[in-house]
Fold these 3 entries.
Entry 1:
Amino acid sequence: MQQHIPVLLKETLEILSPQAGDRILDVTLGLGGHSEALLEAAGKAGSLVALDADMENIAIAKENLKKFGSRVTILHSNFSELPNCLPEDQRQFDIILADLGLSSPHIDDPTRGFTFRTDAPLDMRFDRSSGMTAAMLLASLDEEKLRKIFWEFGELPKVRPLVTEIVARRTENPIRSSSDLTDAAKVVYGYKSPQMLPQLFQALRMAVNREREALGNLLAAIPFLLAPGGRCAVIAYHSIEDTLVKTAFRSLAADEKDLLTGSISKKSEFVLLTRKPIAASEQEIQKNPRSRSARLRAIAKRTEYTDHRTASC
Ligand SMILES: C[S@@+](CC[C@H](N)C(=O)[O-])C[C@H]1O[C@@H](n2cnc3c(N)ncnc32)[C@H](O)[C@@H]1O
């Protein structure tokens, strides 16, 4: 039985504060843990539209959310396609949630190639029905593009020798499996290579799934998808994503100021619900180590009903 423990669940529910009849959009359905809790809290009139790029996760989530019947609409889609992937009559939401990155089945299933802990073909796609696998990227990208990936997404040292090693190896034999890649890393990083593998695999996964680009598109769509009074939370798991979310939310919530006097000339339509990101408690980290790097940020769209939130943040 595939399981995924929803991260920061209590905090997500608190900050998104589901109300009876809320329309919920979960753009990273996973196995449906957050969706289920939000929908339960929104009562019998609440509804959910949820998407995921991963068909296998969708199949499990469908089972898990079966009890809600027609209140749930599940779409196989990438959130970078928002808002166009949504039904035309469902484009305004009271709650939007994005819980980014990997789910437990991605790590636990050795055939997905996300982890360096087991030897498997280097796939790493969330959506196995389209796009290039990690092995294809390693085989086809030129040295400069590979260096950019490892530098920007992995912030790895010794990127130049690493790419030289990968390119030398691929001319002999394609780099097909996680052990092919870890062998190349061992040559470059020596005894430090176990410390580098998480960043190396993260960088490749981000490139395969175009994660930075997808998050940028999602953050651009959120303001239009939030109904007046709506709340949106994003849970990020590394600093590149968290910085993008922080910058987008701060800029949305920035008031316009008079250039001469510096006084506020127009209040923003949005309000930050988190000045600092919310992290998991020690207790949660002990139960679910994956929550260690989670950072939750949230924003609300103003209405007269959300003014109490302004006062509290
Ligand atoms: C951390 S898991 C979500 C877990 C979920 N909150 C739960 O409680 O089960 C992230 C999910 O988002 C999906 N995902 C990641 N990037 C995506 C994207 N750009 N578009 C759609 N789904 C994406 C992954 O396939 C994965 O199932």
Note: The mean pLDDT is 94.
Entry 2:
Amino acid sequence: MELSICIIGCGGQAFQSHLPSLARCLREDGGLRFAGCSDLDEERARRFRAELGQGRSYGDWRRMLREERPDCVLLVTPFTVTAAIAEELLRLGVPTLLEKPLGENAAQARALLQAARDSGTIHQVAFNRRHMPLIRALLDRLQGRPIRHIDYRMHRVDRREDHFHTTAVHGLDLCLYLAGGACLEMHSLYQPLPDQGIGVQNVQALCRYGSGATASLSFCPCAGLVCEQLAVCVDGGSLFVDLPIWGARGNPGLLAEYSGGERVFQADGLALGDGPAMFESNGFYHQLRSFLQDVDAGRMPADTLETGLGAMELSDCLREGRALYRPDAAL
Ligand SMILES: NC(=O)c1ccc[n+]([C@@H]2O[C@H](COP(=O)([O-])OP(=O)(O)OC[C@H]3O[C@@H](n4cnc5c(N)ncnc54)[C@H](O)[C@@H]3O)[C@@H](O)[C@H]2O)c1
């Protein structure tokens, strides 16, 4: 690959996930060049550049684009500003990998999709679970067998922020991605947790998809551990996935399949993975590498804005505390 890369936003996610992914891609492919990083807090950008050992740092991303003219950009800013910057990048024709969520709400995501369609600019949404080695292995095991039902569970510890839907969107997207087809309806129950803070709540959602699959999703932001687990039912088969989210539990994750009451397959995330580090087991490295390969080939990635819009519509529902989602009611 012959590409120069810039990043906008050098905060927590840029350092913990994108920096090591970039470092590995740069090591593996001598044709890649890190051109620059920008952050409103220039000190963070300087630190990012120093840790990567390449490129120049900026306080103004527009200046960075003018001076570096990168082949692509990684956009890792807070969700409150992502849509405005992403729309400008898309309309400028700069291939962009944009962090989730795709703006503050589905309306912003739809405007982004319009900008992508108008410009035809190469872009990829960063729903990293789609790239997790264990999710890729799950899809391989399924070999096209239709999913009948998914049980998905997301637990977190002390997550009292009023925008937990921007994390829940990962689970909504993952179930949509696995189930296939649009979500035709979602019924949600909200359980406020006043002792944990205003607006903090558990959510249980039941979804039906265009493929005929159903899913039940459980979101518990103030539980006892960081975990995400899936139980996937196909005809005559049960597949279980324990995702190694953030490496928080120190295990590499697990995929197991049962049939007729017997275990027919089991492998841990290390055996199936891209490597042991969090940025590898959580799909960030694979996500970046596939984006760069697509940009290099001049090809639109599979993870377009169009594929991410469904999860944004559902996350709007959780944000607004709506009990029922139906696609026509969302417009
Ligand atoms: N995929 C995941 O699992 C995952 C995990 C964490 C965060 N994220 C996403 O990554 C994004 C960033 O999250 P974070 O935790 O790094 O936030 P953060 O607040 O730690 O970092 C964001 C950085 O962007 C900078 N910034 C803000 N406006 C800017 C602008 N106009 N130009 C340049 N820099 C600007 C801020 O100064 C800050 O340094 C969010 O959209 C978040 O949802 C994704």
Note: The radius of gyration is 20 Å.
Entry 3:
Amino acid sequence: MAESARTLDWNGANGDHWVAYEDKYNAAMFRYSERLFAGADVQPDDRVLDVGCGCGQTTRVAAALAAEGSALGVDLSAAMLAQARARAAEEGVGNVRFEQADAQVHDFAGGAYDVAISRHGVMFFADPVAAFANVRRALRPAGRLAFVCWRAPEESEYSAVPRAALGRYVTVPKSGGVNEPGPNSLADPDRVREVLGGAGFVDVRLEAENEPMDLGAGVGEALDFVLNRPHVREAMADLDGGTKAKATEALREALTPYATPEGVLLRAPAWLVTAHNAA
Ligand SMILES: C[S@@+](CC[C@H](N)C(=O)[O-])C[C@H]1O[C@@H](n2cnc3c(N)ncnc32)[C@H](O)[C@@H]1O
């Protein structure tokens, strides 16, 4: 696959971080998986396409649900795909395949999939209408699309709490505004309808989800998770030891009220979006 500026981050430090924290992310997002698969309604003989599959947990779940069908996961990150293949082999999942591809422009076989899914993997497109149209062409007529994406970043404790705590000592860059390629690009429901409609999808439905992100079994784990996110690490890299210690302590204090017996749970509003291929 040709390397371009757009792919560098995921196919570099960000992807490596997601591999290192694979189990953490899967644990943090398991509630979103449940919502995603409720929306996707994968059938035993379905051919499933998982867009931005990362380390492939959702692809393997899709393959298990489509026991007589198959699942293909595509992603930009070679490191995450290597992890995805290793996990599938460990778990003996035979009907799953992973391919390094930019879903925006990849030449998918036309009409080859019954359902396309994504867990937080479709918000990073430079041209979302063209990208979703490309995904739609991979679906059979009336094929289904189901994905989860972030909603209402201003209400996201997952995003705001660490930034505010660390912000007393260092500026942690925002992860991208509404309507910009990045985690919040599909936060605006009108834009989601416009993008998917423009890409040739119909029956576009958005369901507001209010599942929390689970940052770890205790505050220590949550602290490690946040401090090792690439944009946080980068922001803190130049702090002197004393300031770093104060920032870390401020983050620990900020996370402590969110500790529950189920984990350190921070509100992270999302959409479950479903649609059909109009063709
Ligand atoms: C937030 S991560 C989610 C990963 C995975 N879906 C999960 O739930 O663990 C976003 C993923 O989308 C992938 N991605 C971003 N833009 C992409 C593109 N244009 N084509 C394919 N994958 C892409 C990234 O490499 C990354 O793995």
Note: Residues 1-8 have pLDDT under 50 and may be disordered.
